[in-house]
Amino acid sequence: MLTTAKRQRGSIPLYTALVICSAIFIFPMYLAIVNALSAWNTTPGLLPNGFHPENFKYATTLIDFWHFGKNSVIICGISLCTSTLTSGLVGYAFARIAAPGRNFLFMVVLSTMMVPGIVTQIPAYILFHNYGLLDTFWPWLFWGIGGNAFYIFLYRQFFSSVPKELEEAARIDGCSILRTYWNIFLPMSLPVVATVAIMTFQGSWGDFITPFMFLKTEHYPLATALGTISYTANGTKLVLQSVATAAAILLMIPVLLTFFLGQRYIVEGIVTTGVKG
């Protein structure tokens, strides 16, 4: 009993620190909700100034909210489908196909993770401009086909842990390399597939700078549109900050839902690749 009591007392500082850290992270979300429910012409405070849930309605009607949301769905769908499948194929090749220079090429792929993505934006902009692909969704297709170094690493670590006998049995049954990947390896890697899909969705849904550079206003996704288009009152230049905050909260809902619904797969996928790889 004494040992249990001491253990419980020893955990008090840990739980206290967790509560404090949780409050710090939750506080900005609380302020956003308070601001979204306040009146238009008031200064945001710690408590709501009135209760105006209609701000969420105005957030979807004062601008073409659903049109920009459709663009977000298109960009996320392209990125999710192409990046998830392509990264899986490349990871499978690095893990299971013996070829000269395989390890060297894998290190080259991993080294690209050290290059900040913003560094390649201007060369990519010039390239797509020369081919007339600006203000289209084609760049996201080509980026997805190119795969992602981190996702390739996750797939490769998982596929390396699969027993060789399973692959040999598939070859004896007449399966080609692609059929072995599609029918055996891919179904086994569902936790990794879910992890990659969720991370791809969250990265694409909230991306602001890339669509801002490569697209015009008509093709902006929701995150870029909310960052560049102001909610203004009729006939005035008064920015409706409460309505804009309500729109930002609506933007966050899909990301929060995918995280809470898929966090088990994220943890399982990363732990699996880390332990078995």
TrEMBL record:
Record-annotated ABC transmembrane type-1 domain positions: 69-262
Keywords, in A-Z order: Cell membrane, Membrane, Transmembrane, Transmembrane helix, Transport
Membrane topology, record value: Multi-pass membrane protein
Pfam families linked to this entry: BPD_transp_1
The keyword Repeat belongs to this UniProt entry's keyword annotation: no
Primary localization: membrane
Parts of the chain that traverse the membrane: 12-33, 72-92, 104-128, 140-159, 180-201, 238-261
Gene3D superfamilies: MetI-like (1.10.3720.10)
Subcellular location: Cell membrane
Database matches in InterPro entries: MetI-like (IPR000515), MetI-like_sf (IPR035906)
Family, similarity comment: Belongs to the binding-protein-dependent transport system permease family.
Listed name of the protein: Carbohydrate ABC transporter permease
Organism this protein belongs to: Paenibacillus solisilvae
